[in-house]
Amino acid sequence: MPPKLTKTIIGAVIAVALAAAVSYGVISQQTADQIQTKANQTLQTDQTGSNPAPQQPQPAPQDPSPQAPRQPGASPQPPGPRQ
Question: Where would you tag: which of 7, 39, 44, 71 has the fewest CB atoms within 10 A of its CB?
Answer without folding.
Answer: 71
